[in-house]
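User: Show me an example of a complex going from sequences to structure tokens.

Assistant: Sure. Here are the input components:
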Amino acid sequence: MSLTEQTGAAERLGSVSSGNALELRGVTKMFGALAAIRDITLTVGSGERRAVLGSNGAGKTTLFNCVTGDFLPTSGTIRLFGEDVTRFPAHERIRRGLRRTYQISLLFNGLTVADNVYLACRGVSRGRFSFLRPRENDTLLGRADELIEAVHLAPWCDTSVANLSYGQQRQLEIALALAGAPRIILFDEPAAGLSPTERAELVSILNGLPGHIGYIIIEHDMDVALRVAESVTMMHNGMIFKEGTPEEIENDQEVQELYLGDGHG
Amino acid sequence: MSIAEPRKAAVQPMWFEKIPAGWWALVLILLTMPAWANDFVLFQVMGWTFILGMIALSLMFLAGYGGMVSLIQMSVAAMAGYMVAIFGNSGMGEISMGLPWWLYLPIAVAIAALFGTLVGALAVRTEGIYTIMITLAIAAAFFYFTRQNYTIFNGYSGFNLVVPPPLFGVDWRAPMPFYYLTLGCAAICYLVVVYVSRSPFGLSLQGVRDNPRRMAALGFNVTAHRVAAYTFASVIAAIGGILLAWQNAQIAPGTAGIPAVIDILVIAVVGGITRPIGPFIGALIYVLLRTFSPDVLLAFGLSGERFKLLIGLGFLAIVFFSPDGVLGLWERWRNRRARGQDPLTGEDP
Amino acid sequence: MQGFLQRHPIWSIIIALVAAVFLWLIFATWSEEMVEVMGRKRVFLNAIFGGITLGALYFLVASGFTLIFGLMRNVNLAHGSLYLLGGYLGFEVSELTGSWLLAFPVVFIIVAIVGIILQNQVFRRMEGEELRQTMVTIGLSVVIADLLLWTWGGQSYTIYSPDWLSGPMTLPIVSSIRDSGEVVYLRYPAVRMAILFAAIVIGIAMWLVLNKTKLGMLVRAGVDDREMLAASGVRIQYVFLAVFAFGAGLAGMAGIVGGTFQSLSPGEDTRFLLASLVVVIVGGMGSIPGAAIGALIIGLSEQLGLVYAPTYSVVFTFLIMAAVLAFRPQGLLGETR
């Protein structure tokens, strides 16, 4: 499957559902008596690129975990492209075009880079249970190669993931999220631990994504976040604190006191 | 070992050229064995090795590729053996139905696979060491149940005279035919496992082993993959179980007693659960110990019964010093030797 | 308790109903029709008491198992071997000294020392490698079983209870009413009542130690967060040693109890290991009250099954376990993992 074909497929799918990629309504997640996120209502349009900011413990990763189905929310509803997925298991949500990366790389350490990406491609296509080895002209193998190329890991194709450097693992993490036909991707601190050059590369990868792919990015580095996002959501203590354009957020007095002040001070 | 590998080479070697010479030697030895080995070695030593190897292979598949250490495999094998006795022929005419072989063999494998799948469906709800506990408890329940139930499993004595059908006019329990029968089944099971390990199913199972949460985040139904792995492994165990019943010409609760269940784990771990050849190596070691240690022990003035002590201590030593079994020991030894030969570069070969 | 009632009103009612029915069956005088359906009340009562006593024995074995598991994440599959070792040692001590009671402290100390050696020499070397530890315990159970067989042979042993505990005692529960109007009370072996009593005392003591003392606090903190405990400067190895020693010693003492009211022979080690497994799977791994409830349920189902459906008594145990696994994989009182 070529990239243009995929784009076409994604657009057709997009036109069927409503304009919003993700709608959260009153989502709350309790751990015992502690509310990790409280009454989150959030709408992300198709193709929209949103940054989620907030200090540690603001509930950003918990929000992601609720959206992908790693945890079920205690209350509230989650809609993905118009469909209520609140009670769906994670894999069903992924098959509907949702992807995510993890803050701490979650990769398959016993497998090679090629196998990792191949699995990611296989996960969102049919034949997951196939007992037959893929043939050499298998379209998914070709697609996996393209993805490896796209994140600049081609020379390490047959390297076991356990032997990759930290930065390479972060790149592979992104490749896994791009497999199949993603429509909205959740990036959990993709720039964490990267060098300035790697950060620049990340920004170019994100800005180079096809226009129909929206994403939400959690990022502590304001320089990265504000360069790749069209809109910004500030979280604080498990609640949404402010929403707006990057400029509005950057110039907001309260935000500066709360976040920029101690984050960059 | 990657899927993408073959496409990179400019001139592709034929598939048989890629098989190392050691394997050809092994194949030659195994195929010509009946010409130079006696009946006892063929039937008791090698036949038993292949059978135990197959059952341990099913555990290796679950543990090595799926990360699930299941102790139910011996019970699944025994279930298949029982089904052959019940649907086929045995000395217990009142229970055995005497169906033709082409009917009772698939039925036996199917029922055993179903049993394994159900246990798997319960066991995959938990992880890691819990899997050991739960499968061990279910295996014990199977043992006690077969011992107490007389209407289906004929209780304590089980079934005797469970023999293979005289297909093509061959007595398959005679040493040479039985040797080739077990060798053939073991080879097929081994090759299928090797092949499947690189298929989408096998790869995704290894993905589940390494990181179940990420697998779900890639669109895989982790639970379904784990249960399917149990089904696949159960089919292998079932084939081993049928052959085991034929070899002993009987099936009884003791076939899947707790010691037998533990033995399968010992075999797989001693051989090495990282690669499909490991269980067969482990089975050979176990069978040799089991067959010849009484003589050795007697020579040292100990009772022949102490072979269990020997096996237990051997298992402990392996778990202590080489978690990846004899295979791991062998590989480390080879690496060290190779390093010794190449002191200039100092590279890891 | 209050929380459970609020969260699961239906389950609370069902549990209360089942308990009420059992209590009524125990204390009420059975009418003719009931005797017709369920057999003599004496048989039923004996099954119930047999089940409770068996549950008490299971609890003694399983509580050590679950305690070790809860703290160290180590499934000690050699636990049954410690039970059998304790039983044999108890037999020797009581034969040698003629004192049944003396056997308990002696066996407790010896088996606890064995436990300390295991923890210090074996498990400490592979800390965090749960699977490997479990494998080692399997190997140990094979080795110990053969050593025991070597030393004590294949015959079965019974430990004789002292005179003051032998013979039956009368319980204030009506067994039947004779035609003459004379009330017959249930008579039950005194030694079994003593075992039951001891198990309850030990269970409550363990609960109190775990919940009300500093040591218990340390153990529970270790269960929840090992790194935290280690970082806070507590010598967690000592806590591990103490818990392992106590759990092992308890299994050893249970061996004496088992040898007194049943018998000791090769194979009993696996039997009690499996009983412990099932008990903690049903009750919830790492939970002492869970072990108590699990032991009671398994003991009762085994004895009632033996009386009313002898062929399938094992199946009942298994069905209970399967049902718990299917609907509550973490066990009845287990924490969600």
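The lines above are the inputs; the final block is the predicted structure for all three components together. Chain B has 13 helices and two strands.
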